[in-house]
Amino acid sequence: MSTEFESLGLCPTILATLKTLGFEKPTQVQQQAIPFILDGKDVLAGAQTGTGKTAAFGLPIIQKLLESNSKRDPQGNDVRALVLVPTRELAQQVFDNLIQYAQGSEIKIVTAYGGTSMNMQTRNLEQGCDILIATPGRLIDHMFCKNISLRKSEYLVLDEADRMLDMGFMPDIQRILKRFNEDRQTLFFSATFDKRIKSIAYKLQQDPIEVQVSPSNSTAETVKQMVYPVDKKRKAELLAYLIGSRNWQQVLVFTKTKQGSDSLAKELKLDGIKAASINGDKSQGARQKALDDFKTGKVRALIATDVAARGLDIQQLEQVVNFDMPYKAEDYVHRIGRTGRAGKEGFAVSLMSRDEHYLLEAIERLLDTRLPQEWLEGFEPSLVEDVELERSPKRNSRSSEKRKMKAKLKIHAGRGKRR
Ligand code: AMP
């Protein structure tokens, strides 16, 4: 067993689990955060998804729960550790990981998120649990129904805290904190690490240790990035071409709207590419099925919106495509964090139409780097189109018509006044 994991202070039970999982050495965030968490410190970690952050908080919490004398009261409804996440997919993902990390132990791990039956969750929550992974809204529902108590909770993790704030969960988080044991250890994980995040974290934490695995807002080093300028109306065609010609077997594609994700999936299917869309309009069952089909290779292209894609953990995902450039530059970091996970190589492609150029500029400012661009043969953006728009007689005649119309209106208005 790796002495590197041992030197972090992890106990033999956890070390044995890591061996079973085939984890050979700790990732950067694990290396930096685990000793402090084991030592009871609050930690503020800037680590994007794919860096092994779930194990960075999961392993030490599980170890501390195993070692703790204050075991869960089987009659009560106490939660010993709470992991708050922004989306149901991430909740499920964190659950899947933590179950693996706690295998063989009696640690009880439960999820609570919207879109699924409240009754079923209530039954799972009876007699409390050791670790609850929840989205804020559903957690508050359970608190109101007195299904759980956070009064004795010792650990609070805010996972993907930046996204939780972006999604407007701050008031919910404050409500939850009011009923949370004040004598707790708080761990704050966020992909982006700006002033806003830090100032909130400092309000919720006590003398947090700052851990940052990559410079602020940088993208995973193992991800190769490329921007293909292309006309908007040819994006779907270009995507189908890339998938086919480069033999991409598993590609995650981002669109900015739910409707966009559905129509792109339809278009790809017409081109003979097995595709499915995943967005907030779909039921939890449909989203899970699309994800499972993608993971097992039944579906080659999964089209997702930013929110729906949050928390997806697909092993060895090699391609991510930004079909639409993200409105928020930070989302670029989240999106491409889907590839090149845990040290694996990935390729992130952005299809950029002319009207999206300013979005690329915002991304480049955030990353403080220029992204490489390439025109693909046969898909070069047509300069003519724009020039035509500016100079075409049609446009000229349209604008002269407009001018004539304005003049007419003025005349009418003037006449009205005179009358
Ligand atoms: P996360 O950033 O927590 O979503 O983790 C991304 C993926 O990396 C998960 O599928 C983990 O199973 C995997 N992983 C986490 N830590 C390690 C490690 N030390 N060695 C190898 N894989 C890991």
Any overview of this molecule?
By secondary structure, the protein is α/β, with parallel strands linked by helices. The protein has 3 domains: 3-212, 3-Layer(aba) Sandwich (Rossmann fold), CATH 3.40.50.300; 223-384, Rossmann fold; 392-419. Helix content is 45%, strand content 15%. It has 18 helices and 13 strands. The protein has helices at 3-6, 12-21, 28-38, 53-67, 88-101, 118-125, 136-144, 161-166, 170-178, 195-204, 235-245, 258-270, 284-295, 306-309, 329-336, 357-367, 383-391, 393-418; strands at 43-46, 79-84, 109-112, 129-134, 155-158, 185-190, 209-212, 223-229, 251-254, 275-278, 301-304, 319-322, 346-352. It has a 7-stranded parallel sheet, with helices on both faces. A 6-stranded parallel sheet has the order 8-13-12-9-11-10, sandwiched between helices. Helix 4 (53-67) crosses helix 5 (88-101), helix 7 runs parallel beside helix 9 and helix 17 (383-391) runs parallel beside helix 18 (393-418). The longest helix has 26 residues, at 393-418. The termini are far apart. The model is unreliable at 386-419 (pLDDT under 50). Adenosine monophosphate is lined by residues 23, 26-27, 30, 49-55, 97, 313, 315, 341-342. Residues 23, 26-27, 30, 49-55, 97, 313, 315, 341-342 line the site of adenosine monophosphate (AMP).
